[in-house]
Amino acid sequence: MNYYSLNDTKNNAKTSFEEAVVRGIAPDRGLYFPNEIKLLESDFIDNIENYSNEEIAFKVIEQFVNNEIPTDVLKEIIQDTLCFDFPTVKVEENVYSLELFHGPTMAFKDVGARFMARCLGYFNRDKKEETVTVLVATSGDTGGAVASGFLGVKGVEVVILYPSGKVSDIQEKQLTTLGKNITALEVDGVFDDCQDMVKTAFLDAELTEENLTSANSINVARWLPQMFYFFFAYKQLKAEGKELVFSVPSGNFGNICAGMMAYKLGLPVKHFVASTNINDTVPQYMATQEYNPKPSKQTISNAMDVGNPSNFIRIQTLFDNNFEALNQLFSSFSYTDEDTRKTMKEIYGESKYVADPHGAVGYMGLKKFQKAAPETLGVFLETAHPVKFLDVVEETLDVKVPIPEQIKAVLGKEKKAHAIKNYDDLKAYLKNR
After folding, report:
1. H/E element holding 58?
2. Which of 114, 148, 120 is nearest to 134 (CA)?
3. Is residue 251 within 8 Å of residue 217, measured between CB atoms?
4. How do residues 385-429 score in pLDDT, each as one tens digit?
């Protein structure tokens, strides 16, 4: 198993898993992609209920690590990564929520961040004098998950860029209060500005000595472990005996791309729905076959406020850039904040289930698809705990959300962040810290 850059149209340059993880992005600015995807054994899929989550994760990720991490070490990494639950919760007939918020920062990104941190720690184990700088942009939950996952990892410094005033108060606390090897940069702009700065820094020859890598979903070690919980959901719901549909709240499209990778490995899935807010670049593409990125707009589902989703090129590559083949398995719909609030109220009124704004968007996309396929079993991903969006949830539902211990731990801490306006500010910080 090797990796190649998606900007390398001839697929000439071969890159190891370690190099792809440490670099984050290819020298030609392309995303890394595996040059081969091998189907898992049908016997494994047919008997998945007999495997533990750790055993499932090892079988899923093994080929992509390519023996570059010893088996016993990889199993330890997986065990450390998956130290919390991934329950499916019945919301109504033929509709389940897959709750991905039971980890340390209460967001789905805990899985990828913890896995990547431990892989990078292994690759950096003998580099006593060398420090790797993890540079990451966040629209909300990535920053907190990366900060938690990498906190105290030897030989790794973390620099997180986030858009000022466009993440929730709790999200901001999670990425600005940890200290130690974690630094937050508050950007005067939107998420896309943060992401563009990160990509530019990777290719800046004057920053070569900074040993930069990424912990966004552009990094294969952040992106690929997200396949795990699609298999976990199938394991839990297999006995229902119905065709499975996943609806994924989508911003940078790494999560749903991981689900479609799981499908390519042999996971039985009928359809995937990418549910977005008004940042509708992909829904528009699926309607018109014209891809027109645009500046992102702020919404109450801020983790999806992405106008130019990086990972969509990986989805297209999975289907050899064949739109008709993609269209058979994939749909994408967008919703307004008004739609989202209305749906949060409807879900709570009918089932007493408290959905966060992102989960509500996922629910809407699922219900739209099921209108034409009511016999399917639908799963919408709850990507973050409602407490992460406390003001929106409590105001919309007129409920009091209990504060979990993970959140209480950061609420009283002091925010520490450096304000920057542009790439020159970022570059100056990296060179002069």
Report:
1. helix 53-65
2. 120
3. no
4. 999 899 999 999 999 999 888 888 888 888 999 999 999 999 999
Burial of 419 (0-12, 13-18, 19+ CB in 10 A): exposed
Strand partners, 5: 32
- How far is 384 from 249, CA to CA, in rounded Å? 10
- Rg of the Cα atoms in the chain: 20
In the structure encoding, which two tokens stand for residue 348, read together? 């709570």
- Spell 176-190 as b/e; 16+ CB within 10 A means b: bbbeebbbbbbbebb
Residue type, 102: H
**For residue 321, what are the CA distances in angstroms to 318, 324, 325, 359, 377?**
8, 9, 9, 29, 28
Residues of 199-238 as b/e, b for ≥16 C-beta within 10 angstroms?
A: bebbeeeebeebbbbbbbbbbbbbbbbbbbbbbbbbbbbb
* Model confidence pLDDT, tens digit, residues 249-304: 999 999 999 999 999 999 999 999 999 999 999 999 999 999 999 988 999 998 89
Q: Which residue has the tokens 């919301």?
A: 91
CA atoms within 13 A of residue 328's CA, in its CB half-sphere: 5
Q: Count other C-beta atoms under 10 Å from residue 10's C-beta.
A: 6
Helix, strand or coil, per DSSP, at residue 364: helix
Structural domains for the chain? 87-106+223-402 (3.40.50.1100)
